[in-house]
Amino acid sequence: MPTVEEMKKDLFYNPQHASKVCDDSVRESADAFAEGYKTFLDNAKTEREATAVILAEAQSRGFVEFCADKKYAAGDKVYFVNRDKSIILAVIGKKCICEGVKIAAAHIDSPRLDLKPNPLYESDELALFKTHYYGGIKKYQWVAIPLALHGVIIKADGTSVEVKIGEEAGEPKFVISDILPHLGAEQSKRTLSEGIQGEELNVIVGSRPFKSDEGSELVKLNILKILNEKYGITEADFLSAELEVVPAFKADDIGFDRGLIGSYGHDDRVCAYPAAMAAFDVVDPDYTAITVLTDKEETGSDGNTGLQSSYLEYFINDLARANGVEGYRVLSKSECLSADVNSAYDPTFNSVFEKNNTSFLNRGVVITKYTGARGKSGTSDASAEYMGKIRRMLDEDNIVWQIGELGKVDAGGGGTVAKYIANLNVDVVDLGVPVLSMHAPYEVISKFDLYMAYRAFKKFFEQ
Ligand code: MN
Ligand code: MN
Q1: C-alpha span between 264 and 52 (Å, rounded)
Q2: Which domains does the chain have, with CATH numbers?
Q3: pLDDT category, 440, cuts 50, 70, 90?
Q4: Smaller CB count within 10 Å for the chain: N or C?
Q5: Could you tell me which residues come within 8 angstroms of residue 225 by beta carbon, excluding any fewer than 6 positions away?
Q6: pLDDT tens-digit map of 299-318
Q7: Is the predicted pLDDT of residue 319 greater than 90, yes or no?
């Protein structure tokens, strides 16, 4: 007769801290994998930079540019870059493409502040940039922290200039001011969501006037003179630019035991990086393995670099056609892991979570069966059959996993790219990494969970 404890072990679902179910070598592998990830975070704070870093890595690993009309052989490795802001990696499988492909889909855009088209102005001898926030942010978190400016400017003559300033030692940084607490009595009566308002997210970029005895807006003039000397631009060039204000922090270990990583942009680089590494490391897959790193998820996946665009579908159509197969027939037999983050349980703000269905830091990758809000509205909701398949896959290789739902019922909600891929008639479920302080300028993840995501994507491609 088994004891009660033995029966519980057999019958209860009991997700555990990865260190309880893994030996030390797994922890060491996770720590080693995290070092590469931290470097990636520091070098890839925007979708353009992430695309460029992954492209360079792909090329160094023998991936070649995809040619739509070519028929590829098993083992061939190709990439497709969409407008410098999203990238597809593919390793051609041994099976006929008519049997479907395996897709891992992550996003490489993160919440941030974009410059407005006409951003620069002077007010009371300070020069500032007007911004329009991108994605879901808590605006009060973006004041009084060091900021950097990243992006690209297309000049009047059509040439482009890249901007990346505020990251290297010795470079100037930027900042948004806040009211001092001594004078914050009125501000503190605002609700938290109104504590800092959108039109108050003005970035200080200068304070010294151009030397002249006459004229107004001399601080602004001086900034434009500096920008003209450094980048060869005039004020009108801001109109044809994509300039993104991001936190100037670097990625760092968190905690005395170094088990966590704090950084800007874990959502969703913490899935994009392992999904790309899985595509790099997969050897001779049966099914064609495709990693897509997309843009625009944080604003609803609209736009031609987001996954509501047809670029992934067209890519698969081209692969299919070269093999004499219709693209829709490939898609209909394909499977996808929508590689996105979920909210990690926060002991300090526990009231928004339902503990039995929430992901925890360090309990491995989180499978999110459905997202959405208000009665699962706007979700693809993975089937029991596909959940069962993914679960078996993870258990087979002792990949530590847990289930998670985005908070309590009706506490809020959210979505991922899963539904857009599901709409292509692909089996899909969200599988990613739990994040603490999601969408904050400095988010937190666990090294164990990051490494389990890598192992999950690699196994998905190899099975
Ligand atoms: Mn995300
Ligand atoms: Mn997000």
Answers
A1: 18
A2: 4-110+264-462 (3.40.630.10), 113-247 (2.30.250.10)
A3: very high
A4: N
A5: 210
A6: 999 999 999 999 999 999 99
A7: yes
Of all helices (H) and strands (E), which one includes residue 395?
A: helix 384-396
- Cα 156 to ligand 2 centre (Å): 34
Instruction: Give distance in angstroms: CA of 110 to centre of ligand 2.
Output: 7
Give the number of whichever ligand sits closest to the CA of residue 439: 2
| CA 303 to ligand 2 centroid distance, Å | 17
Among all ligands shown, which has an atom nearest to the Cα of 107? Answer: 1
* Each residue's pLDDT tens digit, 56-86: 999 999 999 999 999 999 999 999 999 999 9
* Distance in Å, CA 450 to ligand 1 centroid: 14
Average pLDDT over residues 157-186: 97
Ligand 1 centre from 175 Cα, in Å?
A: 26
Q: Which residues have a beta carbon within 5 Å of ligand 2, which is an ion?
A: 267
CA of 227 to the centre of ligand 1 (A): 34
Q: Which pLDDT belongs to residue 213?
A: 85
Phi, psi of 115 (to 5 degrees): -70, 145
Q: Which two tokens stand for residue 406?
A: 């985005």
